[in-house]
Specification:
The protein is mostly helical. The chain contains ten helices and no strands. Helix 1 crosses helix 2, helix 4 crosses helix 5 and helix 9 packs antiparallel against helix 10.
């Protein structure tokens, strides 16, 4: 196994394990306040210390992993579930008005970053984790549409696709039976990368108050609450910041490793 893939798998596995374990156990109640124990440094009782309300930071990090991974996963699912069929349809009708309509619509969405989309959504429906998922998911749609279209276009001119068309298969059936399985590796790699960006986007939205709302734990909101206490208690900002950095780094390394492992042109390359 390549070092990048192994390290990415380990870092991603730690974040996933923390999220799953938090469903059944955390060292302390993530929402329990103990003012007498506020701003304590790391200790045996509180592994990552406590925040300005006396809440256990390690427990909040575990619960926050659950929020960040869930938001990113569902958002990537939305982007992939909508974007891939659009990209395959555009490629199947390349050069037609339908192709132009789909791709220009994607360009329109690309003109609005996830933060702007989140502001528009939360201005209408209010800030919440659900609306953050919707904003990130909408932004992911054109990403997967472009990847699917580019991958599909490179296959539509090959002989086995021509043979399928001669056999009487329609465009939709060819896209589902022949194109999609052959671009699955591209979509998996892109999905991993978008997953890491989804975690970063969720943290950013929560940081500015547009993501998960109290009492739901969130790495981004932990950073926002800690920004005024960095000099007084650095650990309050250090641990959620490191959680975001390591999770995003792990998923990016995992995506790069999967790309090298799944791309036949790169399998023999030493990394």
């Amino acid at each position: 196994m390549r070092p990048a893939l192994a390290l990415g798998a380990v870092l991603s596995g730690v974040a996933l394990a923390a999220a799953l374990v938090s469903f059944v156990w955390t060292p302390w109640d993530p929402g329990a306040m103990a003012i007498s124990a506020r701003l304590q440094g790391p200790s045996l009782a509180h592994w990552a210390g406590t925040d300005h309300f006396g809440r256990d930071i390690a427990s909040m990090l575990m619960a926050g992993a659950r929020t960040s991974l869930a938001v990113a996963l569902v958002a990537v699912g939305i982007g992939m579930g909508v974007g891939v069929p659009l990209g395959l349809t555009a490629a199947a009708h390349r050069g037609s008005w339908l192709d132009e309509l789909i791709m220009r619509g994607n360009d329109l969405i690309f003109a609005f970053p996830a933060l702007v989309i989140a502001i528009l959504i939360t201005a209408t429906f209010g800030p919440s984790a659900t609306n953050a998922i919707l904003a990130i998911g909408i932004f992911n749609i054109p990403v997967f549409a472009r990847v699917a279209r580019a991958g599909a276009l490179s296959l539509w001119t090959l002989d086995f696709i021509r043979a399928a068309r001669v056999a009487g298969k329609g465009r939709a059936r060819i896209s589902a039976e022949h194109i999609l399985p052959n671009i699955a590796n591209l979509l998996i790699v892109q999905g991993t990368i978008q997953f890491s960006l989804g975690i970063l986007a969720e943290a950013g939205l929560s940081y500015v108050g547009l993501g998960a709302q109290p009492p739901t734990a969130s790495w981004g909101r932990m950073l926002a609450e800690a920004q005024t206490m960095v000099t007084l208690a650095p650990h309050v900002a250090l641990f959620p910041g490191m959680a975001i950095v390591l999770s995003v780094l792990g998923l990016n390394l995992l995506g790069d490793g999967l790309r090298d492992a799944l791309d036949p042109r790169l399998r023999g390359r030493v990394t």
